[in-house]
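PROTEIN DATA CARD
Card holder: DNA repair protein RecO
Chain length: 237
Origin: Aedoeadaptatus ivorii
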Amino acid sequence: MATERIDCLGVVLSASIYGESDRIVRMYTDRKGKISVMAKGAKSVRSRTLPLTEVFTYGRYRLSAGKTFYYLNGGKILESNLAMREEYDRLIYGSALVEIADRSSLEGEGTPRIFSLLRKSLHILAHAEEPLWIFLAFVIKYVSYMGYRPLIPNAIEGEYIFLPDKGIVKKEDGGPHGTEIDSQVIYTFRHLLYTSLDKIDLGEISPAAIETVYRCLTEYVVVNLELERIQSLQLRM
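Structure generated from the sequence above:
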């Protein structure tokens, strides 16, 4: 039977050393969803395929299917997103972004919508002056695309709390537990979910409200996507 060969667009989510000279890369692709790819000889700094296997890279890949992995035959970098590594906060939030996508996606599954979100988020985040804003927008959009969109009220009158398994609910409906939130937090949730990534602007939102949104959304992702914790964010300052 002939070996399946595919050309696809992909975003590198993670890479690990395999054996003495190879790398195994997990990437999210437009055609196959999340897949594992063996890159022969990519551990060497002189390898022509090494740049194609770096985390955050967006490229066009030529692959062949094996029993356990796809194999990297070649490709072309479309965006290296190297600027992600030049600023600490960008690196932390970029690492958390790909970690969430990697750990919450099943092998061989994915959607073009999530692929597009990953590509655009990394592109904007790599140069963002406020990387936290882009990360939060990615998180709420991603978890919504995965089928776990948090509850967000249309009106902001009354008292509300945030529950990590549901979202924003009226205080009287949520019981004694939950994080109390105000109208700024509710507005921020709506803005992050419904505004395109390149138009996210939280300049009028207080730092305290943004931090509340961060705590709520990261807890929501951990609970609903069953991640235990987001390892990359342990280095957040």
